[in-house]
């Protein structure tokens, strides 16, 4: 990668998965015009080719930014995830290469909560089954297996941005809300935190999952958990496909211990809209299957486009890494009449001392210095007089443990 930032029109931005046009507009408004826009995700071999000259890449949840992809992305400075989840990016491999990763932590949360609320109402009434039958010319006019949401208990697993909004909306239609979270949380409305997952599963009419993908949430709901759920209850998963053991769920639907489910995310999802969706759940009329569209509304996508593109432009413009998910967060003022240098290094004792000593030896006056570290890397931003920038860069590049050093401007 270049050690001196390029003119903005030379900074190549690869945007994948049809991110909203608002991202392009935001980047252009900030002076970035060299944008390669692709409507789909790319298979690894093609991605490796396309990313090799990109400085910034924007993705959604399908694109896998693996160690191998990062190896090929020698010019890359930042990844923008135009979504909440960042599990599709090897975050620590990116960090070790000095690549900052950004996301949009809130913008689509309302959309997910609204979809789930709708699914709760439809599933409690048995509408998916009646709908499927009507499409086949069958008429199932009966109140059997059809219930109001009022008075039913919703168990939310993962009481974060989505879980809390869902809880509030569910209470507004008369549901009792309880939740399980590994953290102690502030309960909104009349929601009650339950300390034990089994207890929540045993006492909920509807269970909805809103946890991130982590090693701990893999198969969080499997055979044993499904077995303790209330007979005839409903399971909803709009979090990540790894959280539910789909074969175990298919068995629970087969033996009718659950009355229905709504699943938006799958262990393996088609890479494009042209690929067939394969799942053992396709056979069940009482299951709502959606193609990972929980956050796919115009409102959410437009606002995600503005938010993530804005963060990428800011990082590229002035080095601000605020809200990066894998990187020390440094908030920076605008810079006038000086040069700004960025230095990303292994977090080991003495790095800053080395930098300051080297600068002192060369009579480089540090106008401002900003440092943040995490357990493995440090990110220091240094403003110096412009006529010292080249020598400062040389000194920074020679510091032990340097991952990246460059002149921003
Ligand atoms: N279907 C879709 O299109 C979308 C799916 N998502 C997924 O939804 C997930 C949740 O989103 P937010 O509510 O915004 O995240 P959040 O980070 O605000 O909340 C997640 C909550 O889960 C809790 N948690 C973590 N591990 C847990 C565990 N093992 N057991 C119980 N609780 C646990 C956390 O403490 C936190 O309170 C995202 O990570 C993403 O994977 C997000 C947006 C759209
Ligand atoms: O919109 C997408 O591609 C994925 C949405 C999602 O799952 C997320 O925001 O984590």
UniProtKB/TrEMBL annotation:
Which top EC class is named for this enzyme in its record?
A: oxidoreductase
Question: Which reaction equation describes what this protein catalyses?
Answer: (2R)-3-phosphoglycerate + NAD(+) = 3-phosphooxypyruvate + NADH + H(+); (R)-2-hydroxyglutarate + NAD(+) = 2-oxoglutarate + NADH + H(+)
Its pathway, per UniProt, is: Amino-acid biosynthesis; L-serine biosynthesis; L-serine from 3-phospho-D-glycerate: step 1/3
Outline the extent of the ACT domain: 340-409
- Name the keywords, alphabetized: NAD, Oxidoreductase
> What are the EC numbers?
1.1.1.399, 1.1.1.95
Q: Name one GO molecular function term.
A: phosphoglycerate dehydrogenase activity
Family per similarity comment: Belongs to the D-isomer specific 2-hydroxyacid dehydrogenase family.
What is this protein's function per UniProt?
Catalyzes the reversible oxidation of 3-phospho-D-glycerate to 3-phosphonooxypyruvate, the first step of the phosphorylated L-serine biosynthesis pathway. Also catalyzes the reversible oxidation of 2-hydroxyglutarate to 2-oxoglutarate.
Give the protein's recorded name.
D-3-phosphoglycerate dehydrogenase
Where does this protein come from, organism-wise? Pseudoalteromonas qingdaonensis
């Amino acid at each position: 990668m270049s050690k001196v930032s390029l003119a903005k029109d030379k900074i190549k931005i690869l945007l994948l998965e049809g991110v909203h046009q608002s991202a392009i507009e935001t980047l252009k408004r900030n002076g970035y015009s060299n944008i390669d826009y692709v409507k789909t995700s790319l298979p690894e071999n093609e991605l490796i080719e396309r990313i090799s000259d990109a400085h910034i890449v924007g993705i959604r949840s399908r694109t896998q930014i693996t160690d191998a992809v990062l190896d090929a992305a020698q010019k890359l400075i930042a990844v923008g995830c135009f979504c909440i989840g960042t599990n599709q990016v090897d975050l620590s491999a990116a960090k070790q290469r000095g690549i900052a990763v950004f996301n949009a932590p809130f913008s689509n949360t309302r959309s997910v909560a609204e979809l789930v609320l709708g699914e709760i109402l439809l599933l409690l009434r048995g509408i998916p089954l009646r709908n499927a039958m009507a499409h086949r010319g069958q008429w199932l006019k009966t109140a059997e297996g059809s219930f109001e949401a009022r008075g039913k208990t919703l168990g939310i697993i993962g009481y974060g941005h989505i879980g809390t909004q869902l809880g509030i909306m569910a209470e507004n239609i008369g549901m009792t809300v309880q939740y399980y979270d590994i953290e102690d949380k502030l309960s909104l409305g009349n929601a009650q935190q339950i300390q034990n997952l089994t207890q929540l599963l045993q006492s909920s009419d509807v269970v909805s999952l809103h946890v991130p993908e982590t090693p701990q949430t893999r198969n969080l709901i499997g055979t044993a958990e499904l077995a303790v759920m209330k007979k005839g209850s409903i399971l909803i998963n709009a979090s990540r496909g790894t959280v539910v053991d789909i074969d175990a769920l298919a068995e629970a639907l087969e033996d009718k211990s659950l009355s229905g489910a709504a699943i938006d995310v799958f262990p393996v999802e088609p890479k494009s809209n042209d690929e067939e969706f394969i799942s053992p759940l396709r056979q069940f009329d009482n299951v709502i299957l959606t193609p990972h569209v929980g956050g796919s509304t115009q409102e959410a996508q437009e606002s995600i486009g503005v938010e993530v593109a804005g963060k990428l432009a800011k990082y590229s413009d002035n080095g601000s890494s605020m809200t990066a998910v894998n990187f020390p967060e440094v908030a920076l003022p605008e810079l006038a009449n000086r040069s700004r240098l960025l230095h990303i290094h292994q977090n080991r004792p003495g790095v800053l001392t080395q930098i300051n000593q080297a600068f002192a030896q060369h009579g480089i006056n540090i106008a401002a210095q900003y440092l943040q570290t995490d357990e493995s890397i440090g990110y220091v931003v240094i403003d110096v007089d412009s006529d010292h920038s080249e020598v400062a860069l040389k000194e920074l590049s020679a510091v032990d443990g340097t991952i990246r050093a460059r002149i921003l401007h």
